[in-house]
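Long-time lurker, finally posting.

We've been working with DUF1048 domain-containing protein ([Actinomadura] parvosata subsp. kistnae) and I want a structural starting point before designing mutants. I don't trust myself to interpret raw outputs, so I'm hoping someone here can both generate the structure tokens and explain anything notable. Sequence follows.
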Amino acid sequence: MADEQKSRYLHYLELVTGSLEEKKRWRRYKARVKGLPGAYRTAVEALERYLMHFGPADGAEAMTMYEDLADLFEQSAADRTPIRDIFGDDPVEFVEAFMANYPLGQYRARERARFTSAIERAAQENRTTR
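Top reply, 14 upvotes:
Generated this for you. Predicted structure of DUF1048 domain-containing protein:
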């Protein structure tokens, strides 16, 4: 009975606060980032801010993306890969391509293509009706 009540309590707690496992994953990720050399940590934190605004909002999928980001930068730091070599000339292009590797990022890319196509069709239609 006590285990059932505890389980029910944890279930309600997670409904209110979110997954406890996701919170543990987030803390492990943040510890990994904190362990990076300065420039790499700065780059990851900047990417993280960008992803918080424009990246996948789903908890588990977002955590997979952040963990992959930590993997990339840990390996890059170990190999002493220059930051500019990681990002190329356009950091936004890099992060958009990075996000496209995740299901919600793929959805965003499809919607951008659909939007661009719709505007192009409307512009063509507008030219022919003049």
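Before you design anything, note these points.
Helices lie at 2-17, 20-34, 38-54, 59-79, 83-87, 91-99, 103-128.
The radius of gyration is 20 Å.
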